[in-house]
Amino acid sequence: MRRKIIAGNWKMNKLPNEALDFITELEPLVKNSENEIVLCVPYIDLFYTLLNAQGTNIKIGAQNMHWEKEGAYTGEISSEMLKAIGVEYVIIGHSERRKYFNETDEDVNKKIIKALEVGLKPIVCVGETLEERENHKEKEVIKNQIEKAFKNIKDISNVIIAYEPIWAIGTGKTATSEDANEITKFIREEILKIYGKDVADCAIILYGGSVKPNNAKELFEMSDIDGGLIGGASLNAKDFANIVNYNI
Ligand code: 13P
Known about the structure:
Layout: E1 5-9, H1 16-30, E2 36-40, H2 43-53, E3 58-62, H3 79-84, E4 89-92, H4 95-100, H5 105-118, E5 121-126, H6 130-134, H7 138-149, E6 160-163, H8 177-195, H9 197-202, E7 204-208, H10 216-220, E8 227-230, H11 237-244
Parallel strand pairs: 1-2, 1-8, 2-3, 3-4, 4-5, 5-6, 6-7, 7-8
This protein binds 1,3-dihydroxyacetonephosphate.
């Protein structure tokens, strides 16, 4: 059976002292969970959260990385830097990075290759815009994103995929559990075509987009949804804990 992963994406929120307080508050609330708990925090909070989460069941991730090992890339952070301080996960290709920072499918592919090379687990985001959904293009868009993201990648056993319909992010409009499951299932079928049944059966595919304590259970109990990538609701320790504990 596939394990469940509940990952928070803080986006550009929380100062280091707030991040420390958050881990202190969250830790006792989720200590009995058997789900994998990940918090993807701003770069500046990584070191603090890693220290405070030591010895707990909370794993820490970054929200982006550069694909080069080092060099003249002012303002960037490399995968080696993340790995060196003990980061385990990294979000790659979030729709906000694609939209505001012009990240392309080719950039996403280079980042995944590099993350895997250093032993980070990439959480790769795919998803359609409202316009694409209204034009019934979502499957075509996602198929294209997946094929490009995984180009020349032979082993995706350490990759997590997050289906995040852009129209559901931060809008309070969650995809229905049936719609979300239909697309996660479709993603699994695409993985099957590229990598075969064994890989597809084991692939972890998350749903993200207005996941809250009151809808998490229904979403995460669907056949092909293996957990969630949570934005707004991951900023409050109690809300996030309630989502993590959806199956307790
Ligand atoms: P919200 O949960 O705030 O909709 O954000 C989802 C998201 O973008 C997680 O990466």
